[in-house]
């Protein structure tokens, strides 16, 4: 059996989708099937450590989303035919898909935000709403990372329910686990030093969908009401309208207590989570919400918006707030900071909840879907 795996649109391993592909490749038994990876030339080196036994075939020498879309429309079909794939797997099907395929296809949809939000021009968004759902409907099987995304696929893209499987993401418990809490006032995580105590938000800086501006407002209310020494650490690379978030920080009277890290190395994230007093996930939209799961696995209390897929992932293990209400968000921050019983209960419930998610189980279920689709 030969399975093609599309690494385009996985951000060179630097995003949540890139992490998904990395965790997937680490767990594919090389003896079970012949996987061939194809994507940007630089992807060859990104995934060579985790998939040394899989051949990588570089494609589309011209970089950029437009060139990549053109390649999938005009070049993919011939490429897949020449490679004689039994099936092709698209780990970022919510970003890049061919219109037609000569072999069976399986795609993972992590979210629908880019196609239904307000990040695109009206012309671009209109084209996506016409073209993209057609491509999704042509997939033989669609994997949704949450029930929330499944419902979006059914209601917004008219994908038939019997073609969708829900396979939640997992957590790497060998990396994300509770660390011993020492009393040091400064936490050193190269190349940064973080003064404790701090509140943490791990997310790309993407306005308005990630809701950082209201988080900054809520943090200011929290500081005014408590006079606590906490700082706010926002870990994530700049994305859409990041300048508006930074302008909000510059206008805040608490700007000296707010810190941007930029893109934060995945290998150091568990230590960053573990040093936080608590984690806030203010997003108005998440297809899954890995930050919730990562924080819970590290034994850190989670405060998150009652929005999109977040309650599905966190269940009863988080404190919830209205993402449109900065006062409500700050109230939860005050509660977890002042009530030790609630703090400890959030830690306990979060650790229990995180145990229900496994990358091994995720990959096993996904591989079975791919193999069944290939007809083997």
Textual characterization of the structure:
The protein folds into 2 domains: 2-170 and 359-374, Glycogen Phosphorylase B (Rossmann fold); 186-354, Rossmann fold. The protein has 15 helices and 15 strands. By secondary structure, it is an alpha/beta fold. The protein has helices spanning 16-27, 43-46, 65-74, 76-83, 113-116, 122-138, 147-156, 212-226, 242-251, 269-275, 290-297, 310-314, 326-338, 340-354, 359-374, and strands at 2-6, 34-39, 55-58, 87-90, 105-109, 141-144, 164-166, 186-189, 192-195, 198-202, 231-235, 258-262, 278-281, 302-305, 319-321. Helix 12 links the parallel strand 14 and strand 15.
Which terms would index this structure?
376 residues, Rossmann fold, 2 domains, alpha/beta, six-stranded parallel sheet, 15 strands
């Amino acid at each position: 059996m030969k399975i093609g795996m599309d690494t385009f649109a996985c951000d060179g391993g630097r995003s949540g989708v890139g992490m998904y592909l990395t965790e997937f490749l680490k767990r594919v038994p090389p003896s079970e099937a012949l996987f061939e990876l194809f994507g940007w030339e630089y992807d060859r080196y990104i995934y060579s450590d985790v998939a040394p036994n899989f051949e990588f075939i570089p494609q589309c020498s011209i970089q950029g989303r437009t060139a990549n879309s053109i390649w999938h429309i005009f070049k993919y079909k011939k490429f897949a035919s020449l490679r004689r794939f039994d099936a092709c797997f698209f780990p970022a099907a919510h970003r890049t898909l061919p219109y037609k395929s000569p072999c069976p296809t399986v795609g993972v949809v992590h979210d629908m935000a880019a196609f239904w939000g307000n990040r695109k021009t009206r012309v671009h968004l209109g084209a996506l709403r016409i073209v993209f759902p057609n491509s999704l409907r042509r997939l033989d099987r669609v994997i949704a990372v949450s029930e929330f995304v499944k419902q979006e696929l059914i209601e917004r893209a008219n994908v038939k329910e019997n073609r969708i499987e829900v396979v939640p993401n997992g957590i790497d418990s060998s990396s994300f686990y509770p660390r011993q809490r020492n009393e040091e006032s400064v936490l050193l995580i190269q190349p940064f030093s973080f003064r404790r105590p701090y509140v943490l938000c791990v997310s790309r800086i993407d306005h308005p969908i990630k809701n950082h501006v209201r988080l900054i407002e809520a943090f200011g209310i929290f500081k005014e009401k408590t006079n606590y020494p906490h700082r706010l650490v926002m870990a994530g690379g700049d994305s859409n309208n990041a300048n508006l978030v930074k302008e909000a920080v510059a206008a805040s009277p608490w700007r000296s207590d707010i810190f941007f890290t930029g893109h934060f190395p995945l290998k150091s994230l568990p230590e960053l989570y573990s040093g936080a007093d608590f984690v806030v996930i203010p997003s108005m939209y998440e297809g899954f919400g890995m930050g919730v799961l990562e924080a819970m696995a590290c034994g850190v209390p989670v405060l998150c918006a009652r929005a999109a897929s977040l309650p599905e992932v966190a269940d009863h293990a988080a404190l919830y707030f209205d993402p449109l209400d900065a006062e409500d968000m700050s109230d939860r921050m005050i509660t977890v900071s002042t009530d030790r019983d609630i703090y400890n209960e959030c830690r306990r419930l979060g650790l229990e909840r995180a145990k229900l998610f496994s990358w091994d189980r995720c990959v096993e279920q996904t591989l079975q879907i791919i193999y069944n689709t290939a007809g083997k």
